[in-house]
Amino acid sequence: MTNSIDQLMGVITNRGGLMRGNMYLVKLPPSSVIGSEELNLVCKSVSVPGRNLNTTQRQIGMFTRNIVHGQAVGELSMTFRVMNDPAVLTYFNAWQASAVNRDTGEVGYYNDYVRDIEISILKKGVGLPLFKKEFDLPLPTFIKNRLPTIGPINFRQGEIDLDLVTNDKVAYKVRILEAYPAAVVGVTMSDDNMDGLIDINVSFSYKDWVTQSTDQPSGFLDSLFDIFDKFKIG
Question: How many CA atoms lie within 13 A of 81 on its CB side?
Fold first, then answer.
């Protein structure tokens, strides 16, 4: 069992750690009411869509097999926190109104109300503890102790926080193609919910989703490791 645990830890370490469910970023189309960054901040949860293969049974000789004949995309839903400023509600009401005019009942053109959405799962930064005694800088100790913090490197504390270096470094990203808010669940108010906060759930319809490349080398990290080699920091 010990070997299995060690092997598991080795796999996790080699693969950059485990994904965390609370590190995500959503990029919705901005509007004059609220911007993409604000929508991301108030997005409480999001379901990263999957894909189902549609099959049908076919008799081949003596055996029955399930043969793929198509595919179906999974559900996409998001939950948003509602502020006293009803910008989030206004945003989705306006988006739906671009599809159906509530006054005339006219339906808009498809390309006028569909938009792409991006969902990213972020990597957790890694902290590497460094010790002052391992720094081989050609400076007196009293000067080393007065060195400021430069970016993620704190020379005085002997610590580097790679979470700052890898800020918003994406582990997995999908682009939702031709999406629109098909259903916005109404807000339920109650006397019993005196201390509760208000959320709204939005379900999106969309054409398809595709993954986007996230394997981008970091030139800063390469330079940082070169510094480690020069100063012989273990």
Answer: 11
Give the percent of the chain with pLDDT over 70.
68
pLDDT tens string 176-190: 999 999 999 877 777
Provide the token pair at 141.
Answer: 């100790």
3-34 burial, b if ≥16 CB within 10 A, otherwise e? eeeeeeeeeeeeeeeeeeeeebbbbbeeeebb
> What's the predicted TM-score (pTM) here?
0.66
Angle 51-55-60 from CA coordinates, rounded to 5°: 145
Side chain identity at residue 178, one-letter code: E
**CA–CA gap between residue 48 and residue 124 (Å, rounded):** 18
Structure tokens that stand for 198 in this block: 């208000």
CB proximity list for 110: less than 8 A, separation 6 or greater? 178
Say how far apart CA 178 and CA 110 lie, in whole Å.
Answer: 9
What is the average pLDDT score of the chain? 76
Q: How many CB atoms lie within 10 A of CB 95?
A: 20
Task: In whole angstroms, give the CA distance from residue 56 to residue 51.
Answer: 17
The tens digit of pLDDT for each residue in 61-86 reads 888 999 898 888 888 999 999 888 88
C-alpha closest to that of 41 among 85, 4, 80? 80
